[in-house]
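<instruction>
Derive structure tokens from the sequence
<data>
Labelled lines for chain and fold
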Amino acid sequence: MTGVVPDPLPGWLTEARRITVLTGAGISTDSGIPDYRGPQGVWTRDPDAEKLVTLSYYVADPEIRRRAWLMRRDLGDLQPRPNRGHAALVELERQGRLRALVTQNVDGLHQAAGSSPDLVHEVHGTVHEVECLGCGDRTSMTEALERVAAGEPDPACRRCGGILKSATISFGQVLDEQVIAAAAAAARDCDVLLAVGTSLQVWPVAGLVETAVLSGAKAVIVNAEPTPFDDYASLLVSEPIGDALPRLVRAG
């Protein structure tokens, strides 16, 4: 089925008791955070902006780092709040049907909405912390941005003098093996894999849909644009996430 949320919902969805959710940037656009690969995405409109989150450029070029810190400052000024999509996933957890919430997002809005941190697997890290690429020391993003505002355009680690960056996974940076393993386990051990607001173009996360289906689960993909894994889905929904998701997670 394609396009809209069916009414009534299929029984395999309403009766599912282990739903693993995968979220991408699309779930946060209603909170004012721009996506990256959509028709009006950050990288679609300005391909050069991708350098700000590419490790090799970030390490080699102080100007890229200065631009990255300004980007983080501007995103912080947005003060995004969870939206109806995030709230729907909190309701799914309250129903006792959420197996895990795997997110490609770094905004922390799932936890801010009330999702249990131990169920949220942030495969691309978090923007709320800063990590030294030299010694690994972590501090808060708030503290780093205060230093930027005070006149340090490219603040260095106070412990070792190394390069600081947000504790997010940049292109070219190694993913956390434990987080990826937990995400894969959740995909293998679910009745339904619900992919929301993700283009399913970034690996290995994109492969979780195939992993789930080959393990016997049904897949639901909620995204405005087609994805490479649409053929795996038992249900495709292109309606706005804030409208569709609350209806999809209704209990049977």
Notes: The chain has ten helices and ten strands. The mean pLDDT is 91. The beta strands are 2-3, 19-23, 98-103, 120-122, 125-132, 138-140, 164-168, 192-196, 218-222, 235-237. Residues 34-79+125-168 form a domain with the SIR2/SIRT2 'Small Domain' fold (CATH 3.30.1600.10).
